[in-house]
Known about the structure:
Low-confidence stretches: none
Bound molecules: phosphoenolpyruvate
Distance between the termini: 20 Å
Radius of gyration: 17 Å
Structural class: alpha/beta
Shape: globular
Oligomer: single chain
Strand order of the largest sheet: 1-2-3-4-5-6-7-8
Helix content: 40-55%
Mean pLDDT: 96
Number of helices: 11
Largest sheet: 8 strands, parallel, barrel
Amino acid sequence: MRKPIIGGNWKMNKTARDAVQVVQDLRKRIGGVEGVEVVVFPPFTVLGPVEKVLKGTSIGLGAQNMYWETEGPYTGEISAPMLVDLGCRYVILGHSERRQYFGETDDGINRKIKSALTFGLTPVVCVGETLKQREEGSFKRIVESQLELCLKDIDSQGADRIVIAYEPVWAIGTGLTASPQHAEEMHSLVRKLLAKVFGKDLADSIRVQYGGSAKPENIGELMREPDIDGALVGGASLDASSFAKIVKYEE
Ligand code: PEP
């Protein structure tokens, strides 16, 4: 049985005061939630204050990116051990906004995954096609290639910690959501590809989240699909009430 995992990706939003308010609110609403793993991914600048509020709750902390080197002359970058030191247990890698605006490549994401695993972080690895790729019909090939390259030479030891986020780029921040059927088709494809890389047993234990305008109104129908093991939520995670509703999707 795969434990569902719901993540809130705050992107470049919230200064310390707002961030602390949101997690204090989340703490009250879902601080002791069971049966689902909950993670918030605030910007680097507020990881410290957010960690203090989340301490002792069942809500995990993650970062939105990291660099693959451990330390050294890499101005502006942050490494896996630095995130661990701040109390992070998760890190989003290869988000489409990083691929699109900051030139991230599958090769770089692959290096980051290896470093994250070495330092005990759970990488949330994002894959997904653009609207153009979807319309051209190349979307399955694109997701297959992203996964193959991102997961290249990754030891199956510890790989069960990896979480994949299937996020069709056309659904991110647009209000458009993949239908549960379309999402399930892609999630089951992702699982088949994972089985090719890691074998069936490991593939069956890896969580595959859906991302793309997930909200309280659509989370239930998405979560009913057999290969959808949670959601990576952007916009709707900025507000404690809507994020808590997503986390408690069964109620
Ligand atoms: C995301 O940023 O990963 C995301 C899915 O955003 P949104 O929920 O706003 O579409």
